[in-house]
Amino acid sequence: MAKKAPRRTAERILETTLELFNRFGEPNVSTTAISAELRISPGNLYYHYPAKDELVTALYARYEAEMSGLLDAAVDVRDVDDAWALLHSVLGCIWHHRFLYRDLNDLLSRNRHVETHFGPLLARKSRAVRTMLGGMERSGALRIPAGDLPTVAEHCMMAVTYWLSFEYVRDPRHALEPGNAQAALQRGVQQVLGLLHPYLSGDQRAQLQVLGEHHAPADTA
Q1: Is-contact 78 136, C-beta < 8 A?
Q2: Rounded to whole angstroms, how far apart are CA atoms 218 and 213?
Q3: CA 29, CA 27: separation in Å to the nearest integer?
Q4: How far apart are alpha carbons 186 and 40 in whole angstroms?
Q5: What is the rounded CA–CA span in Å between residue 221 and residue 216?
Q6: pLDDT (0 to 100) of residue 217
Q7: Span 121-157, pLDDT tens digits
């Protein structure tokens, strides 16, 4: 049986860097630490990524591509079940690249690629939220007065964008650990959909409660 081809060094570097950035925060991880974790020489690392900034840029590009693909599914949202699935995927993508949001303001000030690309992606997210709300309105799942729609959409975007920051300030030492992903995603989705609660039809409000109970993390106490 043929042996599986080893992963390319550049890919291994990105995967390990993402893990370290997520665990310790990008400002706290040096290229020396990354090369040591990979057990490669700093020169080997620099051959593929001559500067730490290039690692951030490459990881952001991966995040942007993944997120863009997820946002396309907004056109298929018709009810809270669809919205729950979409938001869970979107927040899951953010969680997988959580170092970006943990240090977002700092990264925006230091990395030109992130600075110039984050705004357009945020605009795409905003359009996706409006598309999601529009689909739910057309299906009768919710009714939002035209005058309230911009505010509701903006509040949803704020919840999506700063959900992880809120998780972090609640418990800085543990919130972003891998074991807390399920609970964090559950809270994030509920925070966003909770903004729609006053506008949902009666059966959709009931379904939102069912979803919250069904997806609630098991009590490990």
Answers
A1: yes
A2: 10
A3: 6
A4: 38
A5: 14
A6: 67
A7: 999 999 999 999 999 999 999 999 999 999 999 999 9
Judge whether 93 and 66 are in contact, CB under 8 Å.
Answer: yes
Is pLDDT at 220 greater than 80 in this prediction? no
Question: Quick one: which of 134, 155, 149, 136 has its CA closest to 81?
Answer: 136
CA-to-CA separations, 105 to 30, 86, 102, in angstroms, rounded: 19, 26, 9
Nearest residue to 154 (alpha-carbon basis) of 123, 181, 113, 121: 123
Burial category of 200 from C-beta neighbours within 10 Å (exposed 0-12, middle 13-18, buried 19 and up): buried
Residue 218: is its pLDDT beyond 80?
no
pLDDT tens for residues 144-199? 999 999 999 999 999 999 999 999 998 888 888 999 999 999 999 999 999 999 99
What is the pLDDT at residue 3?
A: 46
**What is the DSSP code string of 131-154?**
HHHHHHHHTTSB---TTTHHHHHH
Give me the pLDDT at residue 213, please: 87
